[in-house]
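README: folding subset

This subset contains proteins for which both the sequence and a predicted structure token string are available. Records are stored as plain text. Below is the entry for (S)-2-hydroxy-acid oxidase (394 residues), shown exactly as it appears on disk.
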Amino acid sequence: MISSSSHFSSLLFLRKLSHTVFVLFRMQGRWHLSRSMFSEYQKLAKEALPKMYYDFYAGGAEDEYSLKENVEAFHRITFRPRVLVDVSRVDLSTTILGYNISSPIMIAPTAYHKLANPEGEIATARAAAACNTIMVLSFMSTCTVEEVASSCNAVRFFQLYVYKRRDVAALLVQRAERNGYKALVLTVDVPRLGRREADIKNKMISVQLKNFDGLLSTKVANDKGSNLEALANEKFDASLSWEDLAWLRSITNLPILIKGILTGDDAIKAVEVGVSGIVVSNHGARQLDYSPATISVLEEVVHAVRGKIPVLFDGGIRRGTDVFKALALGAQAVLVGRPVIFGLAAKGEYGVKRVIDMLKDELELTMALSGCPSLKDITRSHVRTEREQLHSML
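--- output ---
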């Protein structure tokens, strides 16, 4: 019988070997990458990664209906461009919680970056710094908050899950604040882990995360399915409720954003409890399948908030046109997850930077062709949703 530690060591060896072979093939010029094609990055990542890891990053919950809808719902939104507008200069810059960034494209929190590339979250953080944007470091990072903070000079937020052991969550919050992270992003849609059937079939591993060394074990042995699912169900606090926001505010001076809002009702509650922002998200369609595509509920959340706090958007961004559509429907910025991971797996730090640059270039072109020289010029009247298109046919 192979021990879990030996299994993990073998997988890491295969991961490093496949990464080396991938780099050698790329250096020999055997792959050509179109810088405007997300699907090419995904293809290269699939070729570079062990199946278990690729399925972990790419997969969704159950039938993966919401996973497909997150992307396809964007296709049903069309543009209403303006002409004869001076777009000789197009400005993508914006501010999030008072911090200046080069574009409204941020890096979403995603777990286990070292499974995609040996440099892990450090490579992602350096790419974010080079692109002058904000990275949200995952609670499930394979690099410590200190390692990422010392890797480059950039604005970073820290994602937080709340474990049953509240002292562990509190300690991570204090470490993030001490190391210069500028905000907390509390993920609220994981009282239990969604049924990710590819991970169950592959018996997805859970690894010991360096942030928790000396605090608790994040390795779980579960022969019946996904070790990651077993870890989440063992450690995550399913009792977390709106009342616990007061506890979180009591242990930090950082602004708190809530990630995982999908309804106007919850958006109103978020404003009432005093959070500093909302991230509209269905967790990359990895939690509750048949939850709505996030772009389809964005406007409901924006209307509920009434401009009192910023609304960010997460889920299904694949092109700069998608970014434009989210902004037109009221988002202040978007968070990008899978494209970043696939860029990291394909080309490391450089791949992440290329993904962000690709989205920025496409957004700039979309703004120019739509008659929008700055982000403030993007309005609701620049897009037409599926419902509006159907109504116009009546």
